[in-house]
Amino acid sequence: MEEEKQGKHWYVIHTYSGYENKVRANLERKVHSLGMENEIFRIEIPTEKEVEITSDGKKKVVEHKVFPGYVLVEMIVNERNWYAVRNTAGVTGFVGSDSTHPTPLTAEEVRQIMPSMGMDVEATEKPAKIDFQLHQRVRIKTAPFMDFEGTISEINEEKGKLKVLVDIMGRETPVEIDFTQVEEIK
Prior knowledge:
18% of the residues lie in helices and 36% in strands. The chain is an alpha+beta fold. The strands form 3 sheets. The chain has a 5-stranded antiparallel β-sheet with strand order 10-9-8-7-11, with no helix packed on it. The protein has a 4-stranded antiparallel β-sheet with strand order 2-5-1-6, covered by helices on one side. It has a two-stranded antiparallel sheet with strand order 3-4. The protein contains 4 helices and 11 strands. The chain has helices at 20-33, 79-86, 107-113, 121-125; strands spanning 9-15, 40-44, 47-53, 59-65, 70-75, 91-94, 137-140, 149-156, 161-168, 171-178, 182-184.
């Protein structure tokens, strides 16, 4: 990998089928432990929500993976980052014609994939200013926590993420969510 690719882009990594969540968790831990937060920004599993009718006639929202066996990573590719992702347990490699020079998704591919994940395309292209404050009350605008209200407990401006404490079954539960997916309660 003689020349480094500049700028952050979305890349697709192939995983063992059914290991997508483990790969994301392993990679997030590795990014944190190696201090790569400024080079590997987001790790996402493309999913979509569907309403299914159970055998007893009740509606149930089920989350399905859009691309089983694949995980999306927003990162700046260089030798160190490529090696860290490629050698994460459960990762079989980057998707692309050359395994040592990953091919980023095109802007059009990102625009097609992100809405299915409930993500704002513009948020992936340029960071926006977060106009929220700690302990502020907000309402979640997207599934699976649509219309839940909570209190902001953590703000990560660099990644555009908020940690919101919501009441789930009588317990205050932290939910990490993109700041574009919440609105201020007035």
